[in-house]
Amino acid sequence: MVETRLIDGKAFAEGMRARLKEDVAAFVRETGVTPGLAVVLVGEDPASAVYVRNKGKQTVEAGMASLEHKLPADTPQDEVLALVRALNADSSVHGILVQLPLPASIDAQAVLATIDPAKDVDGFHVVNAGRLAVGLDALVPCTPLGCVMLLKDVLGSLAGLEAVVVGRSNIVGKPLAQLLLREDATVTIAHSRTRDLPGVCRRADILIGAVGRPEMIRGDWIKPGATVIDVGINRVAGVDGKARLVGDVAFDEAQGIAGAITPVPGGVGPMTIACLLANTLTAAKRQVGAD
Ligand SMILES: Nc1nc(=O)c2c([nH]1)NC[C@@H]1CN(c3ccc(C(=O)N[C@@H](CCC(=O)O)C(=O)O)cc3)C=[N+]21
Questions:
Q1: How many C-beta atoms lie closer than 10 Å to residue 168's C-beta?
Q2: Which residues pair with 249 in a beta bridge?
Q3: Gap between the Cα atoms of 235 and 215, Å rounded
Q4: Whose CA is nearest to atom 12 of ligand 1?
Q5: Percentage of the chain with pLDDT > 70?
Q6: Which ranges of the sequence are coiled-coil (predicted)?
Q7: pLDDT, tens digit, for every residue of 237-249?
Q8: Is position 36 annotated in a ligand binding site?
Q9: pLDDT band for position 47 (cuts 50, 70, 90)
Q10: Residue 64: pLDDT over 90
């Protein structure tokens, strides 16, 4: 039985944002340019609205400009593309985030492909995904970046460690695997078709849940002492009928087995926003030629 350490992503993200605020202030002093982040929200998804509000607030707190564009759910795709093109051309906008998921009537890949890769602070454009894959400078997806920062804080070097990523999405699983490879981990991407998923997970020194299924990863899938990063943010009904947030990992079962684990909320979520702000400053520096 080990004492499982709680990985406090919320505190780590607060520290990052405090340092970022100083870097933003220095950039504004040196260039006279205020970094601007444009967020495009199509439709009324209440969970998305909460994220957008938090992002907007923290962007302003860091000393950057937040520009929000809220469009109705039935906005034609052409209009969304026209807005993205206008933001590409707007020199006061250094980062563009189109909140996903988009309504089913809109081709998300077409929208992402229209974002100027230099302003793609989500790192979802194929140019940035490709640059990450071949080891060139890229804007890197925020959630994977936040996960690796937490892992390096807990473990120091990740070299030679067995990392198992459960989930193969373009926004988390695949880019996270690339980042872990870059850190010299031995990487397995597992998914719904993986044979003996519990057995594969039990090999992991680093286990990452990124599937979006509440508490799917059980305590006895965790190798004793492993570092567990829970990317899932699932809204479920609690025993009292009220909604509560749970991750992809059965958190209570992991206690006494995992060496360290991120909680939900307060783990990876806050890191995602901190990394988004960091990417926005990076993008602004490159666009102004101050990098
Ligand atoms: N283009 C795009 N980029 C995204 O990065 C993106 C997106 N679309 N669509 C939605 C998901 C979700 N997402 C979250 C970010 C922060 C928290 C977060 O800070 N959560 C807090 C609070 C959670 C709560 O209380 O609701 C926590 O986990 O502690 C959650 C979720 C970014 N996403």
A1: 18
A2: 217
A3: 11
A4: 51
A5: 100
A6: none
A7: 988 889 999 999 9
A8: no
A9: confident
A10: yes
Q: Is 192 annotated as a binding residue?
A: no
Q: Tell me: the pLDDT tens digits for 175-199?
A: 999 999 999 999 999 999 999 999 9
Whether 32-117 and 141-268 share one fold: the answer is yes
The radius of gyration of the chain's CA atoms, rounded to the nearest angstrom, is: 19
Q: Give residues (CB < 6 A) around ligand 1.
A: 48, 50-51, 54, 97-100, 122, 142, 233, 245, 264-266, 269-270, 272-273
- Overall average pLDDT of the 15-20 stretch: 98
Q: Which CATH superfamily is domain 141-268 in?
A: NAD(P)-binding Rossmann-like Domain (3.40.50.720)
What residues does each domain of the chain span?
32-117, 141-268
Structure tokens, 1: 């039985």
Asked whether residue 167 is marked as a ligand-binding residue, the answer is: yes
**Structure confidence at residue 11 (pLDDT):** 98
Angle of helix 9-31 versus helix 268-288 axis, rounded to 10? 20
Residue 194: the pLDDT is 98
